[in-house]
């Protein structure tokens, strides 16, 4: 049975929770700190969050920064998401800005909040494929268990180093790209050489196998 990683977003207040909940598409828990956290409440929260992917999304003010520092110290493995300081509060941050922040953390959002962002990202991706001699594009879906395993393999490949420029895309938002290149399922690794699609890899057997595929071109 495939196990999915549980995700939790920690925000400050109920108005923050309501706004984020409107944007997020995938099943995800949103927890409110309701202001300053006491030691006992913090310990209880940390125990509850054990084993989950945790994202800290707080206001861009002194109270938010104080809370963020607390989580950095007590929950160092958490991911930190930052709104632009001009908006100050999560609850008043524009939907599209919040959607972009969540997308950058691989959190699925409703497409109506990010169409412009998706179009810009697609244009940049196509330009990279056209301009760079070697490009590897990894297509995935957030709720795909096999994709999570494939992502870990690619993390190793990228760290070791290749001659490729890399891009990772949530295929839920790249329908035109998927249709253009005939992507049938995820995970999928598309290997481009001088602007031409050379191969689509669906079977992520091992890190050496992926390396072998890349080195063929």
Please write the string of helix (H) and strand (E) elements: EHEHEHEHHEHEHEEH
CATH topology of the largest domain: Dna Topoisomerase Vi A Subunit, Chain: A, domain 2
User: How much beta, percentage-wise?
Assistant: 15-25%
Outline, from the CA principal axes?
Answer: elongated
Number of distinct beta strands: 8
Q: If classified by CATH, what would the architecture of the largest domain be? A: 3-Layer(aba) Sandwich
Rg, rounded, reads 19 Å
Task: List low-confidence stretches.
Answer: none
Helix fraction?
Answer: 40-55%
Describe the protein in words.
The chain is of the alpha/beta class and 217 residues long. The protein folds into two domains: 7-113, Dna Topoisomerase Vi A Subunit, Chain: A, domain 2; 117-214, Glutaredoxin (3-Layer(aba) Sandwich). 42% of the residues lie in helices and 19% in strands. It contains eight helices and eight strands. The protein has helices at residues 14-23, 39-49, 62-74, 95-104, 115-131, 145-160, 175-180, 207-214, and strands spanning 7-11, 29-32, 53-57, 79-81, 134-140, 165-170, 188-193, 196-201. The chain has a four-stranded parallel beta sheet, with helices on one face. The chain has a four-stranded mixed beta sheet with strand order 6-5-7-8, sandwiched between helices. α3 links the parallel β3 and β4 (79-81). The two termini are 36 Å apart. The mean pLDDT is 90.
